[in-house]
């Protein structure tokens, strides 16, 4: 199907929608951006996102409520703390502005340009849309859910780009919200809905049970995780270790004296603590690194076996198939399992790439945080969009990868920001992408169906 910009439908809206609603969405996004600043700063340090209230990290004074107004508060203060006059990083208003503009941009693309969530794509590559245009009045749940995902992706990307970690609280919060929203609001004709057919729903049940079994075995110690003695250090961690060794080799330098009030403030904030000690690196050979992947393969094995087994039972055993069809016909059950399946597929694709890449190169290919991030993406967008987002991610990182290869600065790069860019793109353009791929995928599906049917 040929999708061009000329095919975009622009839906006439009332003046209130053109003015009031976009302004509200912009302001809401900026407020969310203000909260993301707190998440990005506190979550990697293990601090509460609620207490203490917003305060200056340098003088520890609580901020006035009007100082917290996104962007405007920073501008009115001249970029300095009201109390100690120390500079406030411009990063805060920038993130607030970016989040607000993202919310506004996606609102306009969804509800004005009508580019975004779709009902589905048929085998011939025709995009299936709802009986009516997307509207914020009726389709606000999917917009809300997509903005939760977009906010989570932004926070995870900022943390990953700086510290090479993705706090698991972010993707799992997004995934839980996705399960609830899809189960409550999805209908078969809902754009962006994930109502699953009986066989995919059976796959979600079987694979989900397999993951729960593996997780239980891991918790009880029967199945250990990979790199139980500590994962190989990344280049950024090895550089930190070298800096620590150099500092320890130098004579102790006199620490600057601080007033009693300053010391108490720093102790409350937690900045007085000694810097984290980097653990000595365990030397891993490529063969040992490859061998560790067997534990991750074992973790995935129950999900694969039980997922395939559940599909075969629902397909090949008539009595079980009829009973399962009745269960899967319950709207909220099929919607919930559609979201579960999306999360499982999103995580599996990245995990499989991690295992194959590690076995192939003899070094850890990507982090498990990326796996969790794509679980959230799949739970929100579905299995198909999650797969497309994963394969789009390298195209966003190729410029940086080429620069790193030419300059020889380092070989490792965080994947989270590029997975996020791929996912953000899929939110808007999955319809055209799926329409282009649909005929080929339909042929492959028929071939696979024939092969399985011969069993």
Break the fold down into its secondary structure elements and pairings:
Layout lengths: L14 H28 L29 H5 L14 H21 L8 E2 L5 E2 L11 H24 L5 H17 L12 H22 L15 H15 L10 H10 L16 H31 L1 H11 L2 H31 L6 H14 L1 H25 L8 H38 L2
Antiparallel strand pairs: 1-2
Give your account of this protein's structure.
The chain is mostly helical. It folds into 2 domains: 1-115, no CATH class; 152-226 and 283-455, no CATH class. The chain is built from 14 helices and 2 strands; from the N terminus they run αααββααααααααααα. It has a two-stranded antiparallel ribbon. A hairpin with a 5-residue loop joins strand 1 (120-121) and strand 2 (127-128). Helix 4 (140-163) packs across helix 14 (416-453). The model is unreliable at 1-10, 254-262 and 264-279 (pLDDT under 50).
Cα Rg: 25 Å
> Helical segment tally?
14
Number of domains: 2
Q: How far apart are the termini?
A: 35 Å
Strand content: under 5%
- List segments where confidence is low: pLDDT < 50 over at least 5 consecutive residues: 1-10, 254-262, 264-279
Main-sheet strand order equals 1-2
Summary tags:
mainly alpha, 2 domains, two-stranded antiparallel ribbon, 2 strands
Compact description:
By secondary structure, the protein is mainly alpha-helical.
